[in-house]
Amino acid sequence: LVVIAVQFVFSSSSMLKLAGAHEGSTGAPNEKTCAQTSCHADASVSPGTLVNTLTFNGGDSVYVPGETYPVKIRISKAGIERFGFQVTVLKSSDNSYAGTLVATDATRTQLQNGVAPNTTRKYITHKSAGAAATSTGVNEWTFDWKAPATNIGNIKFYYATNATNMNNQNTGDQVFLSTFEIKPKISTGIEDKSKEAFFNAFYSSWS
How many Cβ atoms sit within 10 Å of the Cβ of residue 128? Predict the structure, then answer.
């Protein structure tokens, strides 16, 4: 019975990892990481600079209030066949949840609600079908993000990825943490400058 119970725990842990990250595991302010939530008990946690990539709107880094933008998360780690991820989006000035995450690939990704003490935050993570590598040593996930209705200043994406060793246990995996900050698009006032230039030219021609 003890052996069966232990096998069940390991099996449940494996299924849980494949089905998505624990809520609140991005390493954002006031959050834990996957290595601290017992999902990946002894996982190494590293900066994701050389492993993780977030592409916002095809390579942009500015937003217009109310607009919706495509986002892609990519992890590259040689020899890994199964990956996971989780993302949340926070206002840089006070770490409150910003905008709206939208799951556009219902087969591979899913939305999550926040848990205490961050109950107002939202997350997007992988599903079981989204854990397998999309190519050798690489996985990618896509989703949309809708900007807040008003300009709230800089906004930061917090994202964590997990490279698993596929041992069907909660040990020996690798967690990588990254951030990506975007800024509100500032109007250049081109129309006003054009009007000003036209007025000056008109005035000069009659002076």
Answer: 14
